[in-house]
Amino acid sequence: MLFNSLEFLFLFLPLVLLLFFAAARLSPRAAIVSLTLASLFFYSWWDVRFLPVLLLSISYNYGMARWIAVAGRQAGRVLALAVSGNLAALYFYKYLDFSIVSINAATGLALPLQQLELPLGISFFTFTQIAYLVDVRRQQADTTSPVNYALFVTYFPHLIAGPILHHAQMMPQFRLPAVFRPAPAALAAGLLFLTIGLVKKIILADEFASYASPVFRMADAAAGMSMAEAWAGALAYTLQLYFDFSGYCDMALGISLMFNIRLPLNFASPYKAANIIEFWRSWHMTLSQFLRDYLYIPLGGNRFGVWRRYLNLFLTMLLGGLWHGANWTFVIWGCLHGGFLIINHGFQAWRQRLGLPALPRAVGIALTLTVVVLAWVPFRADNLDQALALWQAMLSLGGGLEGDTLSGIRLSKAANWIIGGLLAVLLLPNSQDIVGRFQQRLESVAVAPAKRWLVLGLLLGLVFSLTVMSIGHVSEFLYFQF
Predict the structure, then answer these.
(1) Sequence ranges of the domains in the chain
(2) For residue 197, what are the CA distances in angstroms to 45, 250, 431?
(3) Rounded to 5, what percent of the chain is helix, strand, coil?
(4) How confident is the model at residue 367 (pLDDT cuts 50, 70, 90)?
């Protein structure tokens, strides 16, 4: 069940909202149980065969967390065992065939592939639970309620594609009495977030996909491609991925806000970043924070000198790339960003040592966006040959400026959409800024003219209705495959 489907928008979400607040009239625990069951139903809708995998993961991790909490001096060893179990399950489902293919290629063997189906959201709910285990070890999360823990893991707005949650960020909110009473301001702000996310996904991301996919298919076919076509495909995917994933996160934020629960932000205008360090502070922020707190810092962070710091950065990004998928293309993408971060940190240290001024922000944004676009090529490509073919065309190594992949009016239309998309991400306020201003105005509704809010409500309803009317083929979100 997709957030951008009619059955979710007009059946599942309204019914679960009614069920949650009706159950809350009995007790907060009844509301939590109802939301947990609804979340399990939401996950089962995709493929009920994977529900036992999710339930087993929850049971295993809750049991290990209880053990860690009472293990005393042995807590570190129990934590290592618990994390190893999670990584083993992730490896089995996600990386086993990748390992077999790599071994076969390196040795000439013909080991059979297992061809296991990947349980939806396994990377997200596994990382969420690993963070929980570490937080229990640090005495930053409690283990008092198995029902609360089940809700923490399965909470449907974030279950499939994040954001990655910390127990301390989410569960204390369910102790607040106000959470269990419907709040018109929160419902309105949540609807605005949801509408913005729908616009990003249905109107923008799926349109950019229609320009990106043909170019990558052309590269895969080893056919001739012009420089303009290659850049059009790479830029279209750059915008598709942003609007698709940030659109999902906006919807998740909005849906959760309707339940009076605030999820952490995952995007803060990343394409406005003036360097790669800033980019990773604003792109997929919860994953960046997870990699920093649970990988980079445990590896030693910047505590053991410059070269060790650079190695830790590189390893962190390499593993972050591999987390996205079992393909060498993701390893290349992670290595590229590891290298970019090393260059960025090294350049900043060199500039400060010589007392040189920083680059003009516009130059920094242009340079950062360029290398990000180049790095998205292997992230999107199905294989290394496809990525290399597209890079060659983008750098005009074997391809001219003219071509037929998106020829004539279609290439012109793609250019118009790409220019418009770039202007939107570079100049317009982001979703949280828009909703923040909306909430500020809602808080002063008592002194605002009634006509203004009638107009505002009608406008929001109109945008939501027009967006929903645009739903044709319901496409999955890109991050579901990770």
Answers:
(1) 6-181, 186-274+359-481
(2) 22, 5, 9
(3) 75, 0, 25
(4) very high
**According to DSSP H, which parts of 51-171 are helical?**
51-70, 75-90, 96-107, 122-137, 146-154, 156-159, 167-170
Distance, CA of 400 to CA of 142 (rounded, Å) = 61
Q: Determine contact, residues 250/204, Cβ cutoff 8 Å.
A: no
pTM, two decimal places = 0.91
pLDDT of 165 over the 90 cut: no
Q: Are 240 and 478 in contact (CB under 8 A)?
A: yes
Q: Which residue has the tokens 């009076």?
A: 260
C-beta separation of 442 from 435 below 8 A:
no
Burial of 434 (0-12, 13-18, 19+ CB in 10 A): middle
**pLDDT bracket for residue 400 (50, 70, 90):** very low
Any idea which residue has 């000439």 for tokens? 108
Which residues are annotated as catalytic? 324
Residue 188's pLDDT is what? 85
Residue 449: pLDDT over 70: no
Q: What's the one-letter identity of residue 270?
A: P
The helix (H) or strand (E) run that includes residue 218 is helix 206-220
* Residue 215 to residue 224: CA distance in whole angstroms: 11
CA distance 314 to 320: 10
Give the separation between CA 246 and CA 416, rounded to whole angstroms.
Answer: 22
pLDDT in tens, 421-441: 999 999 999 999 988 887 777
**Rounded distance, CA 119 to CA 458, Å?**
41
Q: Could you tell me the end-to-end alpha-carbon distance of the chain, in angstroms, rounded to an integer?
A: 17
pLDDT in tens, 235-282: 999 999 999 999 999 999 999 999 999 999 999 999 999 999 999 999
8 Å CB contact between 289 and 356? no
**Tokens 């828009």, residue?**
434
What is the 3-class SS of 74-98, one letter each residue? HHHHHHHHHHHHHHHHHHHHHHHHH
> Token pair for residue 9?
């928008």
The Cα–Cα gap between 81 and 87 comes to 10
Lowest mean pLDDT of 84-88, 98-102, 192-196, 408-412, name the range: 408-412
pLDDT at 12 exceeding the cut of 90: yes
**Which residues, 6+ apart, have CB-to-CB distance to 347 below 8 Å?**
none
For residue 336, CA distances in Å to 45, 74, 272, 481 come to 37, 39, 20, 21
